[in-house]
Each structure stands twice: as C-alpha cells, then as structure tokens.
C-alpha cells in the first residue's frame, strides 16, 4: 500500500541484500590486499617493504649494498637507499617503476651516473643525491626524462660546476639544494628555470653575483648565498627576481654594494647582510624594500649610516646593527614616520652624548631597544645608555654628560705632592750647609751634595769665620721653618 503523502515504503534489507553488500566489500578490498601482498612479495632481500596509502615504501638504508637491487615492487612509491656503498648507476638502474615519486641515494660513494639512469621513472618528484663526495661531475643528460621532478638535492657532492643544460629538462623543478659544493660562480644551469622557487647555494666558493646569474627566475622566493666568498654584487643582479621574499648574503666578503643592488625586490621580507665588511649603510640600498620585516647588518665594520637609510622600511620588525663600529646613530636615519619592532645595537663603541638622547628616550618609551653600552665620554664609560642622565642649559639645550661632571675649579697644573715639596726644601738646605772642599774633591764626588747631612762641628775652612758660620746656620734654620709652615698651609687648604 502506498504511504500517506505518496512516499514509498522503506526497503527492507533481506538476507540476499546483505550477501550482495558483503560481496561488494570483499571485491573492493581485494586490490588493497593484493597490493600489500605484491609489495612484500617483490621486496629485495636486503630491504624492508611496507604498504602505504599511495603505494609501497621500500627501505634499503644501511644495508651494505654495493649495487642497486635488480628488482623492486612495481607499486613502489618511495625507495630509500641511503648510507650504502653504491658507486655507479647504470642505464635504467631502477627498471620501470611507474608509481615512484621519491628516490633517496644520500651518503653513498657515487662517482658516476650514466645518462638515462633514471629512465623508467616518469612520476619521480623528489631525487636526493646529497653527500656523494666523489660525484664531482654530472653529464648534461643525467636527469633526462624527469619532467615531473620538483625537488633535487645535490648538496655536498663536491661539484666544481654543472653543465649549462643540466636542468633544462626539469621544467617542474621547484627546489634546488646545492650547498656545500665547490662552485666559484652561481651555476648557469639555473637561468631560465621559470618555476624554481627555492635555491640553496650556501657554504661554497661563489665569488660574485653577476647581472646575468639569475636571469629568468621570476618565481624565485628564497635564495641562500650565505657563507661563500662573494665580494661583489653587480647592479641589477636581482632584476628578474621580483617575487623574492628571503635573500641571505651573510658571512661573505662584501665591502660595498651598488646603489641599486636590491632594486625591484618589493616583496622581500628578509635580507641578511651580516658578517661582511661593509663600512657604511647607504640610503639608496633599501629604497624599494617596502615589505621588509627582518634586516641583518650585524658583524660588519659599519661606522656611518646615511640620513634616511631606513626611512622606507615602515614594516620592519627587527633591525640588527650589533657588532659594528658605530659611535653615533642619528634619528634622521629612520625618519619620517618610522616604526620598528626591535633594534639590536650591542657591541658598538657608542659615544653617549646628546646625539643619542633621542635613542635613550626611545629606549624608555618603547622598550624595544636594550643593551647599548657606552664607550665614551669617560664620565659615563661602562654605563648603559639607559642609565645616562642628560642635563639642560639655561636656554633649554641638551648638555653632554662630560660637561655635567666638570668641577668648578679653574684649569691649571695639578698640585705637587706635599712630600715632594718638603724633600726639595731639605735638599736645598743640605746643599747650603755642606762643607766646601777643594775643587778637585768636589768634582770627584757623585751625589754627595744631595745626601749630605748637617755636620756637628763646622771646620774653619767651610766658612769665612765662626761668627759668620753661626749667622749662616741661624738663617738656614729660619728658612727651613718658613718652608715647613708654607707646606702646612698648603695641606690645610
């Protein structure tokens, strides 16, 4: 009977229906069971295999292998051959593995890779060849047929160079890790990689970034050139890198930069120039970096910052100027309308005079600046700038701490020690009372006049007569008494 409202009656699940549903579940589960069985059945003897969501994971790391196993499960999605003794990869070294997406060959002894070694891996997206120190050379066709490769790791392979066409057949490449190599210039193979977003070239021997080094890298977002030997960055070197967000040039040998070194990098958020030999900060360097958040200028030889050098960096969260030769930093370097999250200024020989009063006030008000030790003037040397008190003159002008600590005494030579004055009077009296001998005797005496004492009995030849001697002695005693009285007056005053 039809139900009220025209609705159909609920269908009952009969025993036959339950059987049909059960059969469906069994048949749907068969591919998974078969895949797991195939993964373990075709697993190489020295490896372990396990079924994963997207296929089969094969682990052969630390297995003591000297050559690539002859067969892998057809369903393999990832293969790990790290830390073995592989030396050569022949043509089609891995056969045909249509599902393989990740292949790792790190920490082996690879010295030669045959062109076409990776044929038969049409879906490979990640290839790791790092820490194969004997590799040193790659053929231009090494990565042929890897059209879907997105990440390539060539770190620590002691590569001196790479062929210009090596990466040309990798249109999908997004990330290149090539640090800890022996490149003396930015590899020309990078040019034209329009989809590359990350390039890691740190800890090498690169000496310059030429105007043509990075042509065509329009989607590059992160570039690391730190810890190389870069002495020069040519004008317009980053002209094609308008999408760049992070640029690391720290720990190189840069002593100067062209005025337009970073022109066009309007999306740059991090710029690290620390650990170089820069002597000043030019106003023109950062004119286009309106989105910059982190700026590192630490560990240089900076002694001067041009007026307005940071004026366009309105979104800066942290500025590192520590470890330089700055004695003064003008507020004009930041104006107008500058806002800063944190300012790091330690390890500089700061002169804490009125030129830094604005900074002291900023430290107190914003609390975003700490640790500014004063090297001069002497009256505040060793103090932190936050502890320095600036005075005001009668017309409201700032008075330097050195002037505040001056005493009211008139300038002049420092008073002579009292003991030295008494000694001089005693020496003079001894000279006057010393016996006068023949010229020959006096000439042969060294230091006798200075150290002579008053004799008990003056010989007649020492003075003209006894009366004169008595008078002379009395006058000398009066002279000594007057001198001692003068010294006492000096001490009391």
Biggest sheet architecture: 15 strands, mixed
Query: How many beta-strand runs?
Result: 25
Please, what is the CATH homologous superfamily of the largest domain? Ribonuclease Inhibitor
Radius of gyration using CA atoms only: 43 Å
CATH architecture of the largest domain: Alpha-Beta Horseshoe
Structural class estimated from helices and strands: alpha/beta
Low-confidence stretches: 23-32, 406-425, 436-468
Task: Fill in the CATH topology of the largest domain.
Answer: Leucine-rich repeat, LRR (right-handed beta-alpha superhelix)
Mean pLDDT score: 82
Number of helices: 7
Domains counted in the coordinates: how many?
3
According to CATH, what is the class of the largest domain?
Alpha Beta
Question: What would you call the shape?
Answer: elongated
What share of residues are in beta strands?
5-15%
